[in-house]
Amino acid sequence: MSDNYKRRVILKLSGEAFADPEIGYGIDSQTVARVAAEIAEAGADGIETAVVVGGGNIFRGVSQAAKGMDPASADYMGMLATVINALALQDALEKQGVVTRVQSAITMQELAEPYIRLRAIRHLEKGRVVIFAAGTGNPFFTTDTTAALRAVEMGADALLKASKVDGIYDSDPALNSGAKRLGELSYMDFISQELRVMDTTAVTMCKEHGVPIVVFDMTEPGNILKAVRGDDIGTVVH
Hints:
The protein is α/β, with parallel strands linked by helices. It has one domain: Acetylglutamate kinase-like (Carbamate kinase, 3-Layer(aba) Sandwich). It contains 9 helices and 11 strands. Helix 1 packs across helix 4, helix 1 runs parallel beside helix 9 (223-229) and helix 6 runs parallel beside helix 8. It is globular, with a radius of gyration of 17 Å. The two termini are 22 Å apart.
C-alpha cells in the first residue's frame, strides 16, 4: 500500500456476529473481542475502517413482543438494539487500544455522537474506528441499506458483508448440497437472480456508485482481517 493511498472500508456486521453461539442471541464477549482484535490489527496496517452493526441478536429476544406492533415502532426497537451492539463493540475496541467513536442516526447524546458525515470522515482520517448505529434513523430500511449508504457517503473502497457462509452460492447450500460458490458476479446478476444475501436496495445503491461488495464468512478466525485488507476471499459483487 503506497503512502499516497489509504484503503477505507465499511464492514457490515449482522447481529449474529455478536450472538452467543449456544443460544443464538445476546452478546458473546469472546466473539466480540475476536472481531475487535481483527479490526484493531487492520487499523495498525493503516486501513481506515468503519462498521455498521445490526441488531438481530438483541431484537430476536423481544421479537415475539413486537408481533402485532406497528411496523415502524418495531423497526425503531431494532434500531435501538444496534446501539447496544455498537457500544459493546466500542468497549472491546477501546480495550484493544483503538480510539473508537459511535455515531447514531438517532440522537442520544449521552451515549453517542450524532451522525455527521464530515465528522465521521475526519475520525477515519485520524485513524479512529467509527461505528454507525441506529441504521439510517428511519424505519423500513435494513442495516444492509445503511451499510451501502454509509459506504457511498464515506467514499469507501469496498463494502464488506460479514456472514455465516463463505460467499454467494448459485442456490441455497443449506438446501442443495451441490450448490456452487461464485467467486464473483455482477450487480445485475445478483439482482436478477434474487440471491437474497443482501437486499436489492443496498446492491442497487452500490451499483449506482461503483462500490464493490464482498460477502465472506466471518465465523472463521482471521477472515475479517483478510477481508478488510482486501485479500482474495468470499464472493465479490462488482
